Write the structure tokens for this entry.
Amino acid sequence: MTQEVRSAAQSRKKTLSTAAKPGGHSPTATGPVFQHYQTAVQLVQQGKYEKALVAFEKLLPVAPPEIVERCRMYVSTCQRQLEKHGLQFLTPEERYDYAISQLNGGYFEEAGEQLARILADYPESDYAFYGMAVLNSITGHAQECLDNLARAIKINPKNRLQARSDNDFQSMVDDPRFTELLYPEIP
């Protein structure tokens, strides 16, 4: 490393260490608070949500303003993951209701996982195929939407009527394959 590069790196380190607000720490500093933050993030990445939640909750009162919002986001993530693993469903319909609530909340991955579990246990669940079609439509997966909606309609033809007025398929209305699926009787 040249002397100029070393000087620039040392100058950058000084700038970062003095960039903290009075009484706070810079998020890029190597102080104990930031080290605890990095450890907690690693726990989340390893799927150790209980330990990560405890670590972030301890960190929040002493966290510098620069990372407080990130800590809160990780607390929320950990809580959601812990709730997800503690869920018990007595019927596939209860799981479906939960999946739709996740879909409506924008948690598409969780919704998809729950619908896939229903289909794994009950492969002729027209409502789960319909839910998957809605999810595919919302997330921009046109072919998967068509495939799942076709399965839902094949199992229960009433799904065709429901899909005709379902606003969740708004992204599909200009697709001729979608029109053909919903209105096969029109030449």
